[in-house]
Amino acid sequence: MQLHFMKHRKLAYVISAVLIALSLLSLVFKGLNYGIDFAGGISLEVAPKSADYAIDHIRSDLAAFSPEIQEMKETGTISINIGLAKNSDEAQQNATIAEIKNILGDNVEYRHVQIVGPKIGNELIRGGIMAVIFSFVLMSIYIWIRYRGGYAYASFISLVLDFILMFGFFSVVGLEFNQTAIAIILMGIGYSMNDKVVNYDRIEENVKKYHKMPMSDLIDLSVNETMHRTILTATTVFLSMLALYLFAGAVLREFSIAMMFAIILGTLTSVYISNVLLIHFNIREKD
What we know:
Blueprint: H1 9-29, E1 33-34, H2 36-39, E2 41-48, H3 55-61, E3 68-72, E4 77-83, H4 90-104, E5 108-116, H5 118-146, H6 149-173, E6 176-177, H7 179-209, H8 215-247, H9 253-277
Parallel strand pairs: 1-6
Antiparallel strand pairs: 2-4, 2-5, 3-4
């Protein structure tokens, strides 16, 4: 059975427009939930003095601070990251550290205590922005060199859409936006671009084989021919991220949620956006 993707292209455009508008509005009015990396905060590394005082006890005792806690089994220590209020001064920062130490008491040994100030956060933000821009430029150059013409225009539009929706997802859902989030976005975009390349290669082959087939039918045929591969790849990666979400604990939960969204987004924009957009360009002209 052949699926007719081109038949629903107008609906795909409407849904894409709504999602882009929602993403942009959320980014403008709500913004991103910056993590300690970007917003600044307190970073502690502690070693429990007793096996009875484990990571779950620390997470429960510090729940009021909404901490990020990770166990480092190699060193037997626990990493604790706690965000600070915007524009907090040195006195407030020291008071927060004193309160944390008072709560933990003599149950832990302090190996490392550091305050990540706004200056460092701003430098990390600039570095993250540069990484995104650099990857976007490199992908755009690759697309143009690899395809040119209508293929390049369609994939470039789809690439912009992927970036907007990935940033919009972090804003709408309120997931913490940190250096890991930058890595997730770039990995997700890379996955999406790889899927687009596979589809475009098959469309290019079919353009050479079926000279008189209507373009909408040719694109439908090409997408259906690669659908088996697309489903297998997306399902394999998605199930891996689902396993992380279910069994890897709270530390990797947000990572797995964002990666699952990136996989779904990359697959859908490959099928319903980058391929569908080709109908508006004369891709036969290249051959």
